[in-house]
Design a protein that fits this description.
It is flat, with a radius of gyration of 24 Å. α5 runs parallel beside α6. Strands 3-2-1-4-5-6-7 form a seven-stranded parallel beta sheet, with helices on both faces. The protein is built from twelve helices and seven strands. With 335 residues, it is of the alpha/beta class. The termini are far apart. It has a single domain, classed as Rossmann fold (3-Layer(aba) Sandwich).
């Protein structure tokens, strides 16, 4: 004979198992629906124009070629004629190039006129703000005000001006803005203008997205981890650091210690070797999805380090993040 207590225990266990099974089933259904929704693509790609900045090399160059193969009408903006010529030779005749310096308003206006002639009444479907620089980066005390301005002018002010100039064309097409930020737009790992500029890109993109959603324009943010591009070129970064170290007042150099520069570059090179991925298609695939998906995401984390380390670290208490980041750099040792 089953006692009342045993029956009650059985009902509780059965109910608990049922709830667990229902929760797992609901989670599986939600995940499946999300994956199906995320995989849906837009129609009429061959009639959609996309402007990509910074196409001389790196992410922009690869993205322009990928979009060209996909069928988009790509307008690739390069800083140099050499970069534009190389890109044209690697793409189909349908791909157009133009010269663009995002820090020069006259250059931006010429690019706008070129794009207007190409797009006509259709408007501009996509704008990918990819142009950017990193150097100078390093300890904040080693910087001058002009060093911050140099990077901010390209990575943030230039991006804002290009976006504002092309917004009417994007509204006409109810298109997409794709802004390349960085995990350094979440964590300020190093001094100089780069982290500041990427935090600014994040903020500008968030406000732009909320304003433009009323007009059917989507805004997506790409947050790459560390990849092997000109932005992470150790040769350029180390040469700049050596010049800065040599130009510092003797008192400042003493406060860091004679061996600080060598230790700094050694740890930086070690971190880059571990973190930097050569597969930049992980980034361009995110950009392509933001342009071609029926439901683009708001943010794309690109790279294992971004997904598994940097972005989770950005949500931890500041004291924990500071402790971990300080491990990656040497401490000053006053001589």
């Amino acid at each position: 004979m089953v006692s009342e207590g045993n029956l009650l225990d059985f009902v509780q266990v059965w109910t608990s198992n049922l709830l667990c099974s229902c929760s797992l089933a609901a989670a599986a259904i939600i995940a499946t629906v999300w994956l199906i929704r995320d995989s849906r693509q837009i129609d009429g790609i061959d009639q959609k124009h996309v402007l990509v900045t910074g196409c001389d090399s790196g992410f922009g160059n690869l993205l322009a070629r990928q979009l060209d193969r996909r069928g988009f009408r790509v307008i690739a903006a390069c800083l140099t004629e050499t970069g534009a010529s190389r890109l044209r030779s690697a793409a189909s005749p349908k791909l157009k190039t133009l010269l663009l310096n995002v820090t020069d308003s006259a250059s931006v206006n010429r690019a706008l006129e070129f794009v207007l002639n190409e797009t006509g009444e259709r408007g501009l479907w996509g704008l990918v703000n990819n142009a950017g620089i990193s150097v100078p980066i390093g300890p904040t005390e080693w910087m001058q005000l002009e060093d911050f301005k140099k990077v901010l002018d390209v990575n943030l002010i230039g991006l804002i001006e290009v976006t504002l100039k092309f917004l009417p064309l994007l509204k006409k097409a109810r298109g997409r803005v794709v802004n390349v930020a960085s995990i350094l737009g979440r964590l300020s790992l190093i001094g100089g203008g780069y982290c500041l500029s990427k935090w600014g890109v994040e903020a500008f993109s968030d406000s732009l997205r909320r304003d433009m959603m009323h007009f059917g324009v989507n805004v997506s943010i790409i947050e790459p981890g560390f990849f092997k591009t000109q932005v992470t070129d150790l040769g350029l970064i180390e040469d700049d650091l050596k010049n800065r170290w040599n130009s510092l007042p003797a008192e400042v150099r003493r406060s860091y210690g004679d061996s600080y520069l060598q230790e700094y570059m050694k740890l930086q090179a070690f971190s880059m070797r571990i973190l930097c991925s050569s597969d930049i298609s992980k980034v361009t695939s995110c950009m392509q999805h933001a342009l071609s998906a029926r439901h683009p995401r708001t943010r794309y984390a690109a790279g294992w380090d971004a997904k598994l380390f940097w972005i989770p670290l950005s949500y931890l208490p500041t004291c924990v993040a500071d402790f971990i980041i300080n491990i990656l750099l040497p401490s000053p040792k006053e001589t």
